[in-house]
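Hello K.,

You asked for the raw outputs rather than the summary table, so here they are, unedited. I folded two proteins back to back in the same session to keep the settings identical. This is the first:
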Amino acid sequence: MGGGYFVLFAFSSFFTTAVQFSPPKYSACHSKDFGYDGTVCVCSDELECDSFSKGSTPLSEHEYAVYTSSKAGDRFSLRTGKARQTSDGGKSQFVEAEVKFTVNQSEVFQTILGIGGAFTDAAGINILNISSTLQQKLLSSYFSQDGIEYSIGRIPMASCDFSTSPYSYDDHEGDFQMVNFTLAKEDFHLKIPLMLSAVEMSRRNLTFFGSPWAAPAWMKTNGKMQGAGQLKGVAGDKYHKAWALYFAKFIKAYEDNGVKIWGLTVENEPSTGYIKGYAFQCMGFTAEMERDFIKEDLGPTLAMFGYSDVKVMMLDDSRNFVEPWADTILGDYETAKYVSGIAAHWYREEQTSPDVLTATHKKFPNYFILNTEACAGWTGPPSERGVHLGQWSRGNEYSHSVIENLSHWSTGWVDWNLALNMEGGPNWVKNFVDSPIIVDAENGVFYKQPMFYHLGHFSKFVPPGSQRIEVNSSEETSLEFIGFLTPEINTVLVILNPEPRNITFEIIDQKLGIITETIPSYSIQTYIW
């Protein structure tokens, strides 16, 4: 089915009566400074993890809650306040506010799928390297009501660089019928058990999607899973039919083991399959090649096996490819009927305006956009790469990307590895990066990074099924902001302050009244009423 089905389904999930928000309190974190521009929170068998408790007292009329996390050390610090009522049509009688935000819940945009991360081999290795008690604390931090309640999980189909070696699900050369297809030990040990635990502890329906890095080596033009190369042959031939069958077998194998697959991306970063000397697993597609593979092989194969409801996402690569690839793939009717959405990565976002997302949405409004991969510490000189424990600015970068992309029609934002080690791995090609949770297995602890809290300001309070709403500022401001209406008909406004100074502002809502607040320097706040 096309993306229109997704949009209609999501909109129909809205409740018709408001459920008053009961703000949960957040326990204090055990802070530790590693010398970067911020701190981490420490969790161990002995130290209780910082977590949410169940909210008990609903907000009263005209009351709001605000959660603050900051470079200075706040972590979901909760306050409540009361909006003032005016008789002047909602105009402020105070002039000290630097900017005024006007919230308009009647102007709604896309429906939100959620926020999440990836169940890589590396994440599984690190999570299983700590005690069973600490494993539960880590997963709970992400997926339970006590945590930030991720709702999306990405699954590498077989290996990626965040594995300990390249492997596929069928290394038997010439097995075009995929008779020997089988999940790997990594799926059974490092991925599926953790995913099932996440499902069990979550009060939300978790959305899982798979992404392949490369076909088995015998199916690639260079004879290796890693390095520049494409799928042998052309769309419609035995290699492409076999590769499409591989997807269907993956869906069935995971579902046989208790994990329902909601969606698939056609290929992780297809542009990398043309980079000479590329170090890890990849496989090249042009937009035309991906179009023809979907049309002639993948779409019909999934339909034949009863998986036409699985959401096929095109691209799964950087923002600069979004519009031209959509023109080629979604502009072809026979292909478009098998596609539901467009997957985009955050790498080098600053080089391409987010307006291309809006332009693409306007051309193809029935197809959702989803940001499917991001990580900090992936580029730059050695001092800028890998793990930076406590670096607040990396959390800032995450929130900036979430606000920017969701403000331009993206339906969600998926981080990369759920957990990495102190080096930023394991990674078989030493492509070490950062993660919202870092595991120090040697000392039996894990660290929650600023990135974790930044993402939580969205994932916790903007549940799947929420809709983005119109929020206008009275003038240009350095504050970054975005608003939502939840399925319970609560209003959520997230504001990011990237400045080294406090900023006073007002929020004007016709029904609630006027909120006058100050956001601390280098902080993120979530307002709910």
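The second followed immediately with the same parameters:
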Amino acid sequence: MSVTAPVLSPVEGIKTRSRRLRGTLLESLANEVTGAIADDDTQLIKFHGSYMQDDRDLREERRAAKLEPDYSFMIRTRLPGGVVTPEQWLKLDAIAQRYANGTLRLTTRQAFQFHGVIKRELKSTLQAINAALIDTIAACGDVNRNVMVAANPLVSDLHAQVYADAANLSEFLKPKTRAYYEIWLDEEKVAGSGEEYEPIYGAVYLPRKFKVAFAVPPLNDVDVFANDLGFIAVIENGQLLGYNVVVGGGLGATHGEPATYPRLADVLGFVAADRVNAIAEAVITTQRDFGGRADRKHARLKYTIDDRGLDWFKSEVERRFGAPLRPARPFRFEHNGDRFGWVEGRNGRAHLTLRIEAGRVADRGEQRHLSALRKIAQLHANEDSGLEFRLTPNQNLLIANVPSEDRAEIDEIVAEHHLDLYRTATPLRLNALACVALPTCALAMAEAERYLPDFTTKVEALLDKHGLRDARIHLRLSGCPNGCSRPYLGEIALIGKAPGRYNLMLGADVRGQRLNRLHRENVDEAQILATLDELLARYAAERADAQAFGDFLVRAGVLAEAHYKVIPVTLLEPSAAAA
């Protein structure tokens, strides 16, 4: 009996015909009749680090005026660990002012995003980013995306080792096609252009996006279990022994389609630090060869593992790796947030973590955050002070390696420009995340970034009512179920269903090791606040000492059974491992 091959998704055809991601991008950029690019090119430009968008606030107005949508482009950087020098910060700031909408956005994957770049300035913007020694290659698309690294180091030397491993892996996994350099940087075509050998990705790249993160316990600021591939640093006596490898995380889902769901990664085993690239290649090529290519909603690594089984997947990875993985080592996480304010480092250096609400660095009213950071960068540009800026995975900013003699001046600038929210804000506000959502994201069903400040204020009023103002509760807002703000790991999360309506998700833990669950479906603000009012009253009256809100909801039996598949992660405690 013959077996009919599955029909591939249209995007697979676009990649196949693209001549290694070139498509007709040059022709699209040259077309002055429209602010858009060709349909196929909207898929290919993602591999180059950009998405075509339009201002949804203006859609109806422009349609009535018989104008095309107000098209523009979002550009995202590939920046392992989110680390930049003061000189680079100033160049990115200038790019935002010259080509984008005058703001920098810090993403939950430690990258910068520029919004509002029009097509005729797209090439100039990308060239300016590359002139800052930063690129956007593979920041989007069906490839490995920006590699995340723990941003809040407890041990500077150890963090430097982990960062080096992550940066090396990011370079190792970068596509080999020269399309990016030909199209955007005017590199001359050479023999074989359009037919480059892609040893890791192959001719059609991966079935879907792929995400990698490096965590350094006891902090899980990268939410390592939410990634396709994660590396948990194993530390003994201050030394990096290697990494526990976790696979199969991913938070994207689709409303009304139970075959799609968020999933936490499984622990696969342990590898030495010098084997990071080899195990990553084994995992990625397994996904390349066995991942689903018929339905893009069912194409992430998490589905490959669930469809074929973890034992099968591990066996296949070990075959490609060339050796069995060693048993995972004990590890323990305490929380998945950031540590705000000053933290002492080594050799007279310190690190300052600043709160950037929803990751939007802008000058708005008294809050002149862009100006403050520009001033700090100018003071340390062209110096050998070692100061650097680090984007955190929680949309905040860390000014790292600050010499002791410079702390007072930085504090003065921060206060003068009202960038010192971390001193007065509630833990709820400090730890809240939100995706961009409306007006630019094409997938958004409801507000997120623009709604976050107002909604947070209303929840704070409930906390005050119940004497819980200092409760460290993780809040996350998402305009759709695709999970860019990692909403399924929020103790409280809103996931957009329609304008002004959300699914209310509750019950994740504060270590990033338990997914939340659907508690109320398709509800408006009044219903959400009434529900939270009741639950916070119970929490205040019934919680155990130091019990987190998510843990209380689970142990008090508040939450119904999950409406989607949940893969629990077992915390490996040293005592349990010894037994």
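The two ends are 52 Å apart (CA to CA).

Happy to rerun anything if the numbers look odd on your end.

Regards,
P.
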